[in-house]
């Protein structure tokens, strides 16, 4: 048996965590021979509920679960962890935009960014709590952990796009590859249909109804989170947990040849994005939690127009939280 992987999960008594913790503990994500230790963070009023979650984890008798602990102190929860999944924060309700949560949730990520200095040298951090790109910027800016080790989740949008393209083309989802979601996990994101592939061919060569991309595909992906809230009365949880775990796998394994995945990472200027913004990009992973941007893609005009808009939005969000960013 190898050394256990230590995984911190924040918001551990919440809905997304409830859909993620059991899969992390079961061996599904890191493999059947890889022990996992869960380090769960909550706020004091939720510690009772977290105790119940821990009872259930125990009752699963997962052979790969080598230990678990609950904390209401981020410094303790992040001590020595190899992964930190920052889920804990308030979700939006009907009629809200994710950016309405900026000032409610942003401060959480100041303290957690600092506390991440206690993590293991190889830590990788995935921010899920909304608005995740700017929360990720806040956490990273308050931490000594290299900025490249942080990402914000775009994989849910990628999965939504993949399913929608497969549905329209009448093919299995596995036939869809190279899906990029540029920018922000917000209603202004830029889902890139031009570079997506279906059965190895550019999507517009397979789906002849080109108006569909701009009239349905792009707006439906942008507004999917709100649609789920409207229908369920609560924000997506199982699909969000699934996307978070997809990202853990995407960064942990070499990206298959000819494909890429979408995640929001620190910009080093690729595609003209301001240095330091946390921007959704097409990435390839080496398999040891490092990544590189897939460069040289050209965008269809409607995608480029949306890319410019979402870049402006992220600049604006950065301005709104400037007091929370370390000078
Ligand atoms: P939830 O309300 O069910 O759970 C959130 C949990 O976080 C609660 O148990 C709460 O006590 C805890 N929490 C609050 N502040 C905390 C802190 N400082 N430290 C630790 N824990 C804290 O919400 P949820 O449905 O699990 O959603 C969590 C977040 O994820 C929301 O912000 C939601 O908008 C976001 N989300 C993001 C995506 C994405 O694609 N990036 C998708 C879905 C949801
Ligand atoms: C989603 O995309 O489903 C989540 O970000 C929840 C939300 O507020 O839309």
What would you say about this model in short?
This protein is of the alpha/beta class and 327 residues long. The chain has 12 helices and 14 strands.
SSE blueprint:
Layout: E1 5-10, H1 15-25, E2 36-41, H2 47-59, E3 65-71, H3 74-77, E4 83-86, H4 102-105, H5 108-115, E5 124-127, H6 132-141, E6 150-152, H7 155-169, E7 176-177, E8 180-182, E9 190-192, E10 197-198, E11 201-202, H8 203-206, H9 211-222, H10 224-232, H11 238-252, E12 261-266, E13 278-285, E14 291-293, H12 301-320
Parallel strand pairs: 1-2, 1-4, 2-3, 4-5, 5-6
Antiparallel strand pairs: 7-10, 8-9, 10-11, 12-13, 13-14
The structure holds nicotinamide-adenine-dinucleotide and (2S)-2-hydroxybutanedioic acid (LMR).
Average pLDDT for all residues: 97
What is the makeup of the main sheet? 6 strands, parallel
CATH topology of the largest domain: L-2-Hydroxyisocaproate Dehydrogenase, Chain A, domain 2
Low-confidence stretches at least 5 residues in length (pLDDT < 50)? none
Small-molecule components bound = nicotinamide-adenine-dinucleotide, (2S)-2-hydroxybutanedioic acid
Question: Termini, distance in Å?
Answer: 44 Å
